[in-house]
């Protein structure tokens, strides 16, 4: 158990150091968006052990963390990606500007999912969605995958009625979908 905690702490320190190094050459809007992404990653990293049952569940931490993610998502996120701000040290792929509609759709989904997680904080972790998803095997978006962009089919109010673990999974999947499509691989 102690070894697991030490490894987790070492991983966290390494992540923070790598983030600081990657951000060292960033300035202006690129640094602002990198800082926003780092803030969201920090929240996910803090909440994940609660959702996995390896740390005590704290609804106040879930609520404040979800609010922090929501504050960096949606239009707050997309406004940090004006055309011409790609290239090093940015990790943004050119596909962001080539497929702006999908990118903005994912940013909006993240905001709604985070707002839903904030509302679900009092519900406890509950169950995590299975491979088939929550909507009759069609995935969390009722048949419209997150990679497809577009408007989410679920509201923050609906998500807020779910267990927080399910809402957290939706937030995490939105991050993964966006990173898979629009974030350059770290070198």
From TrEMBL:
Q: Does the keyword Signal apply?
A: yes
PROSITE patterns, per database record? CYTCII
Q: Which GO terms describe its molecular function?
A: electron transfer activity; heme binding; iron ion binding
Q: Tell me the GO BP annotations in alphabetical order.
A: electron transport chain
The record's InterPro entries line, in alphabetical order, gives: Cyt_c/b562, Cyt_c_II, Cyt_c_prime
Instruction: Show the SUPFAM superfamilies listed in the entry.
Output: Cytochromes
**What are the protein's UniProt keywords?**
Electron transport, Heme, Iron, Metal-binding, Signal, Transport
Give GO cellular component annotations, separated by semicolons. periplasmic space
Q: Tell me which Pfam families the record gives.
A: Cytochrom_C_2 (PF01322)
Keyword Metal-binding included in the entry's annotation: yes
Q: What is the residue range of the signal peptide feature?
A: 1-22
According to UniProt, the name of this protein is Cytochrome c556
What species is given as this protein's source? Aliiruegeria lutimaris
User: Which lineage do the record's taxonomy fields give for this organism?
Assistant: Bacteria, Pseudomonadati, Pseudomonadota, Alphaproteobacteria, Rhodobacterales
